[in-house]
Design brief:
119 residues; alpha/beta; 4-stranded parallel β-sheet; two-stranded parallel ribbon; globular
């Protein structure tokens, strides 16, 4: 698709809980993929808890993707606890969030980010 970064599509399934005890490992799984061009989908549909260390990881991952020429898309279950936390902090307006892996894979690269919370 025109406008997509050259490189492979990679889906990284993040753990069911992301907190200070495992956010470094979760970050490492994303870091490898974000250091080269391609589309990286961070699948958080199975994630039910994400503390501030995990949220910081997502913002840093977005910045790393932009710097390396890759594209990051984050998939979060709409109306789930992670989506609510992102919304409360306003991160749903800062991060490339999608309601499903399919939506993240098929989003037009020039389209504005879809709202997962009805926005």
């Amino acid at each position: 698709m025109a406008g997509e970064p050259a490189g492979p599509l990679v889906i990284v399934a993040l753990p069911s809980e992301i907190d200070i005890t495992n956010s470094t490992a979760a970050w490492a799984s994303l870091l490898d993929m974000l250091d080269k061009p391609g589309l990286v989908i961070a699948d958080m549909t199975g994630t039910t808890f994400c503390d501030s260390s995990g949220l910081r990881m997502l913002v840093t991952a977005r910045d790393r993707a932009a710097a390396s020429g890759s594209a990051l898309r984050i998939v979060v279950t709409p109306d789930g606890p992670v989506a609510r936390g992102l919304s409360i902090l306003g991160l749903d307006r800062m991060l490339p969030i999608y309601p499903s892996v399919w939506d993240a894979m098929h989003a037009h690269p020039d389209a504005s980010q879809p709202g997962i919370l009805g926005g």
